Amino acid sequence: MRQSSRPVDGLSDAEPETRHDERAEEEKEGNEREPGGRSRLARLRTCHPRAARTLRWTTTALAAALILGALLLPNTLPAVGPKSFTRIPAEAVMGAVVVLWLPRRPRLVAAVLYGLGLTALTAVNLLDMGFNEYLGRGFNAALDWDLLPDAQAYVGDALGGGVATAAAVGAVVLVLLLAAVMVAATVRLSDLLVRHRPRAARGALIAGVVWVTCSALGLTLFGGPIASERGAGALRVHAQRTVESLRDEAAFAKHAQADTFGNTPPDQLLPDLRGKDVIFTFIESYGRSAVEDPIMAPGVDRTLDTSGKALAKAGFAARSGWLTSATYGGSSWLGHSTTMSGLWIDNQRRYRTVTAGDHLTLTKAFRKSGAWDTVGVMPGVQKGWPEEKWYGLDKLYDAYDLGYKGPKFSWSTMPDQYALEAFQRRVHGKKRDKPLMSFVILTSSHQPWAPIPKMVGWDELGDGSRFDAIEKAGNEASDIITDTTRSRQEYGKSIQYSVTSLTQWLERYGTDDTVLVFLGDHQPMARVSGTRASRDVPVSIVAKDPKVLDKVADWNWTEGLRPDPDAPVWKMSSFRDRFLKAYGSTPHRSGG
């Protein structure tokens, strides 16, 4: 019989020399030959036929499972489970058809490219998992590569430089190993399909008919379609996301040139706050979940209520609402710049675009008015920070300028209580000719929330050495970051600490002319805040002078430090213009 020389299911056999090459390929699998000309693998098969057969089929099964797993792998951790892999991937059917149609050399090239494609697909799915878990969104190939060094730096600060280096090297090795294994798997299966061309062709035809039927009828299994095109769909989504991001960058650059207050004369900026010491403070990861989640909220709400009563006793009043942050789970600088610029800065490209220009920030408006000195207090900054000029700061105090000699608390270079006391000693408590506008970033509530500082007597802070014993007695970051329940509990405690530090500082050092605006920069990572959590953060204005709060009476914010669930929710980018208008600034548009 010459069955293999006839067309089968619409596919013809390769030319005779190709068939000869295929038989040769099968005989060359051992590579190393003994003097008699027989390969070691061939001898092994002769001496141990059952073991050789088991090994061959096991390897083939693993190769098939690897390829199908890559094609059906979800891009979120909650979706990973046996149900996700009970599908028929269209990409596998099409791959089999192509392999059966191509001659040997093109087939080898196609198999290698297919394996590399599956490697890329697996990599972006894993990146999607990580980004969804921590930032509440998928990976963006056009924007997010810049965040990978920041991620490594975070791991280094939280778990140590050795762990960060090992993780980076391990990730590279893992990708290279995955590529090698995936290519080996696709090459092996392509060879197997061609060696059994008639049966493989019939199988591909049957699988294709089943896929088309399931797709046409919309048949599902375990809540998902049986006919899957998950792999192609994932790559298509990433491609579209990349194209849209590049288009968005050009449109945003044009939009950022227009500014409602860009040409406002200095004497028409913030006239109703003249003579006040104004402090804008961001509390790291202070999100709506801290106030409303059943695990974190009881302690945080109790702290807000207690702190509010203490401030009221000291003569302060407060109003609170909600802002929807431009970022989630991380990239705090996007929240800072969005609030201060009045532009929606939700990715690193936008951030670089706007900070390279001269768009008026809220902090810069104080400096432009000529009525305030401006200062930044940023204990999290540990290297050159050119954005200082864009923010309009006369002076920046970073991690090395505050005189701290104590231990780090995970990512945070110093406890918030110490940073605020240093701010008082070096800046806020000194006499000056002008009032002060301060831009303060508090970092003790930065993930992984271990160890967390504790409050000490304000007169006992010294150079920070007092915190050595507290840091040593605290939790290990590695124990908290891998435990969702403990992460949520410790996150709540860190917010309590930061709020207590700030409100006690205000109670201790605030004056009749002090105006404090404090808010969160973003929600904590999705594993803590929840996969369906909003992007809202609390925002509060605190002052002794009732005229300050009267100016925002029409905002309908809640009295006190804890906003009601139904308090107004604004986009974070709207805050700058609302604040400028509330305190008497006159719009004079520039650009656009």
CATH homologous superfamily designation of the largest domain: Alkaline Phosphatase, subunit A
Q: Number of domains in the coordinates?
A: 2
| CATH topology call of the largest domain | Alkaline Phosphatase, subunit A
How confident is the prediction overall: mean pLDDT?
Answer: 85
- Can you tell me the residue ranges where pLDDT is under 50 for at least 5 consecutive residues? 1-37
Q: Sum up the overall morphology in one term.
A: elongated
Number of helices: 22
CATH class of the largest domain: Alpha Beta
Characterization of this structure:
The N terminus is likely disordered. The chain has two domains: 242 residues, no CATH class; 307 residues, Alkaline Phosphatase, subunit A (3-Layer(aba) Sandwich), CATH 3.40.720. With 592 residues, it is an alpha/beta fold. The radius of gyration is 31 Å and the shape is elongated. The strands form three sheets. Strands 5, 6, 7, 8, 9, 10, 11, 12 and 13 form a nine-stranded mixed beta sheet that branches. Helix 2 packs across helix 3 and helix 16 runs parallel beside helix 19.
Short characterization:
With 592 residues, this protein is of the alpha/beta class.
Summary tags:
592 residues; alpha/beta; Alkaline Phosphatase, subunit A; 2 domains; 9-stranded mixed beta sheet; two-stranded parallel sheet; 22 helices; 51% helix; elongated; disordered N terminus
